[in-house]
Design brief:
Two copies of one chain form a homodimer. Chain A is α/β, with parallel strands linked by helices and 349 residues long. In chain A, 33% of the residues lie in helices and 24% in strands. Chain A has two domains: 7-113 and 303-348, ornithine cyclodeaminase, domain 1 (2-Layer Sandwich); 130-300, NAD(P)-binding Rossmann-like Domain (Rossmann fold). Chain A has helices spanning 13-23, 25-41, 112-130, 147-158, 170-179, 193-197, 242-247, 255-261, 276-280, 302-318, 337-343; strands at 7-11, 52-55, 60-67, 71-79, 93-99, 105-110, 137-141, 162-166, 186-189, 202-205, 212-216, 226-229, 238-240, 248-252, 274-275, 293-297, 323-326. The interface between A and B is large, with 82 and 82 residues.
């Protein structure tokens, strides 16, 4: 796919949407979850570092690199909660996959849409080993850009087909209902979080405020629930009351990062947590009983993005939804970079 | 320049070469040095971290981020010395400049050529405050991809017009002479490093072996010389005998990074060094006497790349050598990312 060395396949936003539709949204989510699971199972093979964050007053810009020794990937992602006021996305992202052997990029891809898909796929993957058996009803607290992706991933991977929606802005819930109209969910729009969690076996919290918020309080959480907490994902941004954490079995992606960014920043560093990969690799149990409260404290980790880039790259073989970027200087003689520049002078052309 | 929010200006290799020729190579180097100098003078305003490196058997892949609080930039760069055997570049790079206020990318650019230019501009900038007055003769040890850029930057910024070239491969020196034929240098190709340094006031070492090498030994270095050491730039890769370091006043970009990657990895952590920005900002002296040996132990730092991206972005206003990438998802309603995806379904188009 990449014979001309200077050319890097590029999946722009338009091609990413075409790729998702060519594969099918739910099939894409299932395929992506499969690759994430495979990569989580070989977790020790990866270079892992907490993301490299640059914080400012209005948000954060992060680089999330990882490598399995054969491929290297990184994602650029920002988080700017106030952006929506100006008609901008809260989160935008793009990523690059590279060949470790040569250091040459193999793929550049938009990752705003891809991040939404991989976040949902990871949530559903976790719920498959953590949610109570036969769960079909999910509450979604926060009906922003991530809500529909969560709904479809849980449907595709777990068979969830009843949704209870709540957002501080009723228009957001309406938007979510409208977008999901053709997918066969039973959808109830609720007046409050308390109302939304009634009868739900899974509670997904995915709000966007950058502050210590208490979206779920202790009294709302009954036994046997699985909580899929997506929105608390940076220092100072949490969604759950600490009392809930003390009653829950807590599962995380990468503990050193989640202790800084996740719900568990409210707990001591000694509080026991289980990394999801351990469950997927059969090294730790997931849900232990029907009455247990399980919590997936998700902040997003670089390996999920690596898996997503890998899935996209593999998919391009069958669905060639990409263009080509002349990103790399490729002189005929590697030491002759200057000669290449010199010969490109317009008067010599 | 960037009114459509989803579109990011992209300078590919072809446009970078056009931009360099439109401005003129030497004028580009001078303009770039000017921006680097301006940024070095406001050094304390920047977020500084050592680069984020992923080492493998054959090379290294690095991310180099920095921010001044208004703009954020990062570069992806690899270093794979064995690549040339397979007809690949040892170093390839690209970079992104972003708006800190929104987290949105403002520019994506190739940086293989741009890195060669900024490395040379930084070397010449350092030499302007460190080389002996009136220096006109430079030895270049290692005549690979960086050699001509160094030569032109030293000519443009210092008036160097006599070159003494040496490379273990005579064909590399011939290539350098051929490429520089039209620029009015007096060029001598030498049989050895010892021969090359004879009569030179400036010695540039820019070899590419990834190992502890001794390109310059102590007996080759006379008083009053300025050494511009470019090639030693990662752990285990040095070019100078330690005795030279002990006789020299040593200048570096960012000490915490250079102590790991530069020539000074051979010294104790207490050995005194001066950061170049201190000299440029008038906070520390450069060369103190005609007999002093000065050494610029250059490894490349993120702020230089930031400056280079800034220079390119500013230049695009007058010289619009860029294309536009649909890199960012930009739904009409920011919370409706899924709706944008849904409406892109081909059957609905």
């Amino acid at each position: 796919m990449n014979r001309r060395l200077n050319v890097v396949p590029f999946v722009d936003v338009d091609n990413m949407m075409k790729l998702v539709h060519a594969i099918g949204i739910e099939r894409f989510l299932v395929g992506l979850a499969h690759v994430i699971e495979a990569d989580f199972r070989r977790w020790p093979a990866f270079d892992k570092t907490a993301r490299v964050a640059s914080h400012s007053v209005d948000g954060v810009i992060e680089l999330m690199p990882t490598s399995d020794g054969t491929l290297y990937g990184f994602k650029y992602v920002n988080g700017h909660p106030k952006n929506t006021r100006d008609g901008l996305q809260t989160v935008t992202a793009f990523g690059v996959l590279c060949d470790v052997l040569t250091g040459y990029p193999l793929l550049l891809s938009e990752m705003t849409i891809l991040t939404a898909l991989r976040t949902a796929a990871t949530s559903a993957l976790a719920a498959r080993v953590l949610a109570p058996a036969g769960a079909r009803t999910m509450a979604i607290i926060g009906n922003g850009a991530q809500a529909e992706f969560q709904a479809l991933a849980f449907r595709a991977l777990l068979g969830v087909d009843r949704l209870r929606l709540y957002d501080v802005d009723p228009a957001a819930s309406e938007k979510t209902r409208r977008n999901l109209a053709g997918f066969g969910f039973g959808i109830t729009i609720c007046d409050s979080t308390q109302d939304a969690v009634m009868g739900a076996q899974i509670v997904t919290t995915v709000t966007a405020d950058k502050q210590y918020a208490t979206i779920l309080t202790d009294n709302m959480v009954g036994s046997g629930i699985h909580i899929n907490a997506i929105g608390g994902d940076c220092p100072g941004k949490t969604e759950l009351h600490a009392d809930i954490l003390h009653r829950s079995a807590i599962f995380v992606e990468y503990a050193p990062q989640t202790r800084i960014e996740g719900e568990i920043q409210q707990l001591t560093l000694e509080h026991p947590v289980t990394e999801l990969w351990e469950v997927l690799a059969g090294q730790a149990p997931g849900r232990r009983s029907a009455s247990q409260i399980t919590l997936f404290d998700s902040v997003g980790f670089a390996i999920e993005d690596f898996s997503a880039l890998r899935y996209v790259r593999d998919s391009l073989v069958r669905y060639p939804m990409f263009s080509e970027l002349d990103l790399l200087a490729d002189p005929d003689e590697p030491r002759d970079l200057f000669g290449m520049l010199l010969r490109a002078e317009p008067s010599l052309a």
